[in-house]
Amino acid sequence: MAAAQDVHVRICNQEIVKFDLEVKALIQDIRDCSGPLSALTELNAKVKEKFQQLRHRIQELEQLAKEQDRESDKQVLLQEVENHKKQMLSNQTSWRKANLTCKIAIDNLEKAELLQGGDLLRQRKTAKENLAQTSSTITENLMGISRVMSQQVQQSEEAMQTLVTSSRTILDANEEFKSMSGTIQLGRKLITKYNRRELTDKLLIFLALALFLATVLYIVKKRLFPFL
To answer: Taking every annotated instance into account, which residue ranges of this chain make up the domain Sec20 C-terminal (predicted)?
Structure first.
């Protein structure tokens, strides 16, 4: 069961890293966002969802750390939990800064549009397309890493299931062995008891034969040698 627990810890760590990468990708999208506010709101909703999933996995890893049998393993995992919490706080700070930067950029662009009109609108459109292309490339790269990690998580879950099945098989075999051991011990006791009974029967037969022979000899003696 310790091996299955180690697999669970590894899966939890991999998912924490995956959600952390996804949060960073979304924060980068917010930095690159040039409006409108509805787009920023949608990105923030996605970030909140990823933070919730990340927080849940960190709490799960913390619980696994508390369930460790060895104190050294417990302390190592608790240190990892602390590092993940610090990283999450750093991401939250970056998220707030990215929102502030994005809102300032949107306000500045809106003011510039009012002053410069159509030329600025075209420039903004070009800049937005370039930023969107860059953000799309970064997001695709991060999502590719996320997919690879998801595959690793799935493989780890399959390995954990195999370990659980193997453990159950070993326990069943152990129970059968105990049952067979009890049967063998009972047979041994019966054989020992039978051997003792056989020895007693032989001794009684020998004594009866000796008594019979002694009686025959006595009778023969009285018949043949009555004067003795």
So the answer is: 134-224
CATH 2.40.50 fits domain 1-115+151-179:
no
Task: Give the per-residue pLDDT at 204.
Answer: 80
Average pLDDT of the chain is 82
> Tokens at residue 67, please?
């369930």
Q: Is the pLDDT of residue 122 over 90?
A: no
- Report the phi/psi class of residue 117: left, alpha or beta, with left for phi > 0 and alpha for psi in -120 to 50: left
Q: Is the pLDDT of residue 23 over 80?
A: yes
Measured distance CA(188)–CA(192) in Å, rounded: 6
Under the phi-then-psi rule, with left for phi > 0, alpha for psi from -120 to 50, and beta for the rest, what region is 35? left
Domain residue limits, the chain: 1-115+151-179
pLDDT at 129 over 90: no
